[in-house]
Amino acid sequence: METCILGIESSCDDTSAAVICNGKLYSNIINTQSIHFKYGGVVPELASRAHQQNIVLVVKEALEQAGKNIDQISAIAFTQGPGLLGSLLVGSSFAKGLAIAQDIPIIGINHLQGHIFAPFLREKDEDEFIPNFPFLCLLVSGGHTQLIIVKSYTTFEIIGSTIDDAAGEAFDKCAKVMNLGYPGGPLIDKYAKLGNPNKFQFSKPKIAGLNFSFSGLKTSFLYFLRDQIKDNKNFISDNLSDLCASIQSQIVDILLDKLLKAVKQTGIKNIAISGGVSANSCLRNKLTDLGLNNSWNLYIPKIKYTTDNAAMITLVAYHYFMEGRTDSLDIVSIAKLSSFS
Ligand code: KG4
Ligand code: ZN
Predict the structure, then answer these.
(1) pLDDT band at 182, cuts 50/70/90?
(2) Could you tell me if residue 250 is inside a domain?
(3) pLDDT tens readout for residues 277-304
(4) Do 91 and 140 lie in a common domain?
(5) Per the CB 3.0–4.6 Å rule, which of 74, 155, 156, 241 could disulfide with 151?
(6) In a shared domain, residues 204 and 312
(7) What is the DSSP letter of 137?
(8) Which atom of ligand 1 is nearest to the CA of 115?
(9) Does 295 reside within a domain?
């Protein structure tokens, strides 16, 4: 018998819906809200309003593209948190309403858990992929930077986290200082392609253990530019590629140093990366080299599943559903949801 789950992701500025049947992805519709671009960041109030405008059409399109009607759906999943509360509430309320109308269960999913499983998304014409557990996941997004031991679809241990900025935030803030657009990560990645990664050096964090820190690097980048601009007001445009390549390579080295340390500490050689920053070409290339040199088993997501999408939420929900785990209708959205359960 076919088990189909409809999932909704609305934690930030992407309204997304996906359908997964028997573990494979049938559709994944993403409406990225363009209204925020002119503000240089996400405006929460505008995000909730845009989710309300988009959600009916996005869900309808996900069902149509999957070739399924709502009566073929066994449960409705949604992102419970973390995220912007107003945005989360649009997704959860829509999921609850539709589930009541259809008399089917709901499943609330942690957004970060969704990211972790993005490398394992397979489309309907591909073979299903089951990871080797346990694996180590380097989760790098706009809001989070964590090292996680993933023991099963539903059990996790966080062994390292950022103590200040997330890796994506470091990319975005450094891009902002250079007056690039938002989000800055993909732009730094683009300009870095022609630059020299060893041209400029910025301060390295000295954090013990497996935690990360990016605020010192960001401040050192800011002060360096401020000093250089005193002598040459065109310093940024004259050196854009080298600046991007240098800051990118140093952010990536901070991430990979800790990953190497985590592998040594845990002995786990199944390694995944996920989250928006896992789209970064420097990170993907350096990780691939490290993996080859150290005989690691690498799980790297397709670029299209690195940033926010409902497919990853729905995949986790599918496994919860198969374990018989669903939520009651009084489940609440939690902006700072941190635990995995
Ligand atoms: O996972 P995500 O879509 O949203 C959160 O849950 O935070 O991640 C967004 C982050 C942004 O900070 C963006 O600049 C970064 O991912 N990002 C990148 C790249 N593509 C997206 N950072 C570096 N290089 C990229 N190619
Ligand atoms: Zn995300």
Answers:
(1) confident
(2) yes
(3) 999 999 999 999 999 999 999 999 999 9
(4) no
(5) 155
(6) no
(7) E
(8) 1
(9) yes
Number of folded domains that form the chain? 2
- 149, 256: one domain: yes
Any domain includes 128: no
End-to-end CA distance of the chain: 28
Nearest CA to ligand 1 atom 16: 276
Residues 6+ apart with CB under 8 A from 112: 82, 139, 141, 144, 146, 340
Closest ligand 1 atom, residue 14 Cα: 3
Residue 261 has pLDDT above 90, yes or no: yes
High-pLDDT (> 90) share of the chain, %: 88
CA of 111 to the centre of ligand 2 (A): 6
DSSP H helical ranges for the chain: 44-66, 85-102, 111-117, 167-177, 184-192, 215-231, 235-238, 240-266, 281-294, 310-322
Q: What is the mean pLDDT of the chain?
A: 95
- Asked if residue 40 belongs to a domain, the reply is yes
Domain of residue 112: give its range.
4-121+305-322
For residue 287, what are its two tokens?
């990780």
Residue 260 shares a structural domain with residue 184: yes
Mean pLDDT of 166-194: 95
Is 145's C-beta closer than 6 angstroms to any atom of ligand 1? no
